[in-house]
Structure formats: C-alpha cells, structure tokens
Amino acid sequence: MIEATDFRDAMSLLTTAVNVVTTKGQSGLHGFTASAVCSVTDTPPTLLVCMNQTSRSHAHFLENKTLSVNVLGAQHEPISNAFASKLCSEERFGHGAWTQLATGAPILEDALVSFDCEIEDIQQVGTHSVFMCRVVAIKQGYQQSSADESLVYFNRAYHQVGQVEIV
Q1: Which of these, 9, 73, 2, 64, lies nearest to 31 by C-alpha position?
Q2: What is the mean pLDDT of residues 90-100?
Q3: Positive or negative: CA dihedral 45, 51, 57, 60
C-alpha cells in the first residue's frame, strides 16, 4: 500500500501551473489557489478542477455552480500566496485587478489566460471534489509576448517558465 506522504512527495515532482480559481453567485465571492487543473476535451471545451472538500470555500463553489480559472504569470506570486492563505475573501480580492465575463466569476485582468466556466458535474474522490467545467468564455492576457513567464509549482516551490530569446 502506498502511504499518503510518499504519494505527496512523488507528486511534488510533477510540475504544475499555478492558478487562482474563483466563484461568485448567491453564495458570495470566493477563491483559492489551485494546481490541480487540466484540460479534458476541446469539444465541448471542458476543464477539470480539483478542490479539497475541507476547504472553507468548497460549499460556495457547489452552490454557485460557476468558476473561473485564472492562469498566473510569474508576477502573480503574491496573488497566489494571498489566495492560499487564511485571509478572508474580501482581503484576497484586494490583491490584483478583477473583472468578469459571462458567469460573473472574477477574472484577473492581467492573467495569462482566464477560463470562465459552468460546473456541469461533480465527482467525490477521496478528500477532493472533481469539478467538470464547461468553458463558456476565454480571455487571453493583453500583453502576450515572448517575455511572458508562467508561474509553476515544482518540488514545493514556485518557479518561472517561459520562452528565452536567443540573440
């Protein structure tokens, strides 16, 4: 049998993008930092987002049935830390500039890309909920250039990944 700590240690070596996942609706405005986000299919455009069921925001995502995935750039490390902290929702959203698309879930204005989604299905797997999310709108960052760097998490630390121009 594989121990949970051994699994977490092994998974720390899987490089993942850092995202802030947000929701807004009758249950209020909430968000969290997530690395467990991936594409499922492009027809129809669908993302998978995993969230710990013990998260204080969990019930709000279930009730609102919408979310936005904001893919963070290297400059967003403080925003990632804020959304991973014990700050209240109002304090978290005090970091960064926010707007919205179709669902009303907050979109980080300068995210590398944001996916606005409706939660279509939820599976409970162990300690987490797996949200299957239909993408209803996409907003790419305004300043896309070869200098953009993505914020990633590897070996329990932040790193930056991007194109390096060879001159």
Answers
A1: 64
A2: 97
A3: positive
